[in-house]
Design goal:
Helix content is about 50%, strand content about 15%. With about 270 residues, the protein is an alpha/beta fold. The chain has one domain. α2 crosses α3 and α11 packs antiparallel against α12. The longest helix is centred in the N-terminal third of the chain and has 16 residues.
């Protein structure tokens, strides 16, 4: 097993990392250190934060499934994903929530001098996000930011963005352009930006910039964040939470039952 590898457990044919905030932050620090010591690999590393929506999307879409399974870390972002891991034998598994992980990674970046780039959101969101992050972490090096348009970039535009990120000297790129767009972006740019770390943190940009309210902590703990987010953004999220997410329960139950019958609850990858 590679020294910096985090084990994964299969959930609906996606390997989900049995990790924690501390382990994730530690691994990212090790990856940056390896790169700075010229021991980094030819590809960028990328971290995904997996919700039930992401799991069902991966089940329906082979490309998304491949991208998730190629990720260095697929953290259990949603409480149902955490419950699934616990049901497969990882009794102490906790949630590793993208927005919280972003803050933890920024805290570590400030301490260790890692340089951060922000990719996603709008110009207004990025400006407020940068202001708030620097208010919280005054010594954090935010070396660049880019708000992509709400359409695919042209080849020329993408080359410009790649050059911008490369020339910024960033170590860690936070990607906030929603699932599965951000996962595709990270996968497509692994070879173009070798040695960097990508973290696809989704709605974290909007949350930390104060553009969208987060669910209360008690709702997050009880797996009710979906209800809060649906109330906040019904037009955008109703299909996700009312049509896609409910498919998870019977699929999880079927996998759990099969694992019990086979006597093999843990299926590590």
């Amino acid at each position: 097993m590679p020294a910096l590898h985090i084990p994964k457990q299969r959930v609906l044919n996606v390997g989900v990392s049995t990790t924690s905030y501390d382990q994730l932050v530690s691994r990212c620090a090790e990856w940056v250190a390896a790169q700075r010591a010229q021991r980094g690999g030819p590809l960028a590393r990328y971290v995904c934060f997996l919700s039930v929506h992401g799991l069902i999307t991966a089940r329906d879409n082979a490309e998304v499934r491949r991208i998730l399974n190629a990720a260095d870390v697929v953290a259990p972002d949603g409480m149902p994903v955490v419950w699934a891991l616990r049901s497969f034998g990882f009794k102490n598994q906790t949630r590793v929530y993208g927005p919280t992980a972003m803050i933890r990674l920024c805290e570590s970046a400030q301490t260790l001098g890692h340089r951060v780039f922000l990719y996603g959101g709008t110009d207004r969101t990025l400006a407020e996000l940068r202001r708030r992050l620097l208010e919280r972490f005054p010594a954090l090096e935010i070396v660049g930011a880019f708000a992509p348009p709400f359409r695919p970039l042209t080849a020329g535009e993408d080359q410009t963005v790649v050059a911008l990120i490369r020339e910024s000297g960033a170590d860690l790129v936070f990607v906030g352009i929603s699932t599965p767009k951000q996962e595709r972006w990270m996968d497509e740019h692994r070879e173009l930006l070798p040695g960097l770390i990508f973290a696809g943190v989704g709605a974290a940009f909007d949350f930390h910039a104060g553009c969208v309210r987060q669910a209360p902590a008690w709702m997050q703990r009880q797996g009710l964040e979906w209800m809060f987010r649906l109330a906040m953004e019904p037009a955008r999220l109703w299909k996700r939470y009312l049509l896609v997410t409910p498919r998870f329960l019977p699929l999880w139950a079927a996998q759990w039952a099969a694992s019990i019958l086979s006597g093999n609850t843990a299926e590590r990858t």
